[in-house]
Design a protein that fits this description.
The complex is a heterodimer of chains A (139) and B (312).
Chain A: E1 9-14, H1 18-27, E2 36-41, H2 49-57, E3 62-67, H3 78-96, E4 103-107, H4 113-130
Chain B: H1 2-7, E1 11-17, H2 23-29, H3 34-41, E2 42-46, H4 55-60, E3 66-72, E4 75-77, H5 78-90, E5 91-97, H6 99-103, H7 115-124, E6 142-147, E7 157-159, H8 166-177, H9 240-243, H10 261-272, H11 277-285, H12 290-294
Parallel strand pairs in B: 1-2, 1-3, 3-5, 5-7
Antiparallel strand pairs in B: 4-6
Classes of the chains: A alpha/beta (139), B alpha/beta (312).
Bound molecules: FE2/S2 (inorganic) cluster.
Chain lengths: 139, 312
């Protein structure tokens, strides 16, 4: 089962860094798994905890958030709030019975196309290990 | 004669107690003398808690013959589900009365566990349980997870609160009797909080305290580092708990345009944190029970239905 399991991953990427980083990965012709559905947000701080829960509810096996490195956020501290939220969300997920590894936050600058490709690959591998989200069949 | 009769047509009302503590049934009496005025306008046709009536009697009623059916309590057993559906059939307006019916309330927390775990905790492993007997016969089936009313039938109106506080209930009843299904405040509890004036311009939290860990200085709870659900909770109760020096735990539910009260509050708390990077983990970890704090009343609206868990 786990072998042919292709996870669905929703990736929220901030417009100024992470999304540009993903673009960079594309223009540099770096390969990364096609399991991610990227969603552009203006800032990682825009990712409301509700978005994360919604993604899981709609059947995502993992949620990825990409933002600017600390200090680089276009809106000064949006990413720091995200970091705190993600920490709290991981605790929430754990209590809900979801492996907190299914939520991942990474800082990716506009030039870090290679990092983007690498962490996405890693994340997909990790989720494959974990198997489908417990709510997938539930829907 | 005819005219007079027309004027006196009383609205037919039903009230049902599903899976809940019974506080909602009592809360209807909590409107005191207003109930007497109300009785001029309504006729109670079904209220198992207060009158002698059987389910068969309800079945015999004509479809849509009840004007307003109030359903309090959540849906935990097959019986609850059956009556919810039956009432829906018999009533013109179906109203979710109280937090249990709307979002599962405290008993919704049981959705973090499956039936087996719940039964074990209640009937077998409970320290005060001497005879360890699992109920088995002649009882309605216990559903795999608790449902809210709107997860089972179409709901026309919602009266929030655990149980609905007097001012909320009065407004709701007035509106419903006039056929209106939208009522209630559209602002957060902070707007009508008795401690409103002590809320600082910008709240910064560097450490969390539980109520018993800190002497209350009478000011805004959040500013004191005590989690209060006020900012994410709908106004209407006039801050009854705050008046009794207890922070809000959010029984009035989310603001009208917010879907997830817990997520909204969690997000707000993350923004109010004012700690150095190194202390961040420690401070966040000091909130021990995230679901119990932020989803005390709305776990049933979250995903973990019947203790679905990640295998890994
Ligand atoms: S703009 Fe990239 S994290 Fe805020």
């Amino acid at each position: 089962m786990k072998e042919d399991f292709e996870p669905k991953i929703v990736a929220f990427l901030c417009n100024w860094c992470a999304y540009a980083g993903a673009d960079m990965a594309g223009t540099s012709r770096l390969k990364y798994p096609a399991n991610v559905v990227p969603i552009k947000v203006m800032c990682s701080g825009r990712v409301d905890p509700e978005f994360i829960l919604n993604a899981f509810e709609k059947g995502a096996d993992g949620v990825f958030i990409g933002g600017c490195h600390p200090g680089d956020c276009h809106y000064v501290n949006g990413n720091l709030r995200t970091r705190r939220r993600v920490k709290m969300m991981k605790k929430l997920l754990e209590q809900m019975g979801v492996n907190p590894k299914r939520l991942r936050l990474e800082w990716i600058s506009a030039t870090e196309g290679a990092k983007f490709a690498r962490v996405i690959k890693e994340f997909v591998e990790e989720i494959k290990e974990l198997g489908p989200s417990p709510w997938r069949e539930r829907r | 004669m005819e005219g007079k009769k027309m004027k006196n047509v009383k609205k037919k009302i039903a009230m049902y107690w599903g899976a809940g503590c019974g506080g909602c049934d009592v809360s209807l009496l909590g409107i005191h003398e207003k109930l007497l005025d109300l009785l001029d306008e309504i006729e109670i046709v079904f209220w198992p808690c207060a009158m002698d009536i059987k389910y068969e009697d309800l079945e015999k009623m004509e479809d849509k013959s009840i004007d307003i059916a109030f359903y309090n309590g959540a849906i935990r057993t097959e019986e609850n589900e059956e009556i919810a559906k039956l009432l829906r059939k018999k009533a013109k307006l179906m109203v979710a009365y109280g937090s249990c019916a709307i979002e599962g309330c405290v008993i919704g927390l049981a959705n973090l566990y499956n039936k087996k775990e719940i039964f074990e905790a209640v009937y077998l492993k409970n320290e005060t349980t001497k005879e360890k007997i699992l109920p088995s016969r002649d009882l309605p089936e216990f559903l795999p997870y608790l449902k809210t009313l709107d997860q089972v039938v179409k709901v026309d109106a919602f009266i929030p609160g655990c149980p609905p506080p007097k001012p909320v209930l009065e407004e709701a009843l007035d509106a419903l009797l006039q056929g209106k299904t939208k009522f209630g405040k559209e602002v957060a509890l902070c707007e009508e909080c008795p401690r409103k004036d002590t809320k600082p311009e910008k709240i910064e939290i560097s450490k969390f305290y539980r109520w018993h860990e800190k002497e209350d200085n009478g000011e805004c709870f959040l500013a004191q580092g005590i989690i209060c659900m006020g900012p994410a909770t709908r106004a209407g109760c006039k801050g009854e708990c705050i008046s009794a020096n207890i922070p809000c735990t959010g029984c009035m539910g989310a603001l009208p345009r917010v879907r997830d009260q817990g997520a909204a509050m969690l997000s707000a708390i993350a923004s109010l944190l004012d700690v150095e990077d190194e202390k961040e983990d420690e401070v966040i970890d000091s909130i021990k029970d995230i679901i119990g704090t932020f989803y005390k009343y709305s776990t049933a609206k979250l995903l973990p239905r019947g203790g679905m868990k990640d295998e890994s």
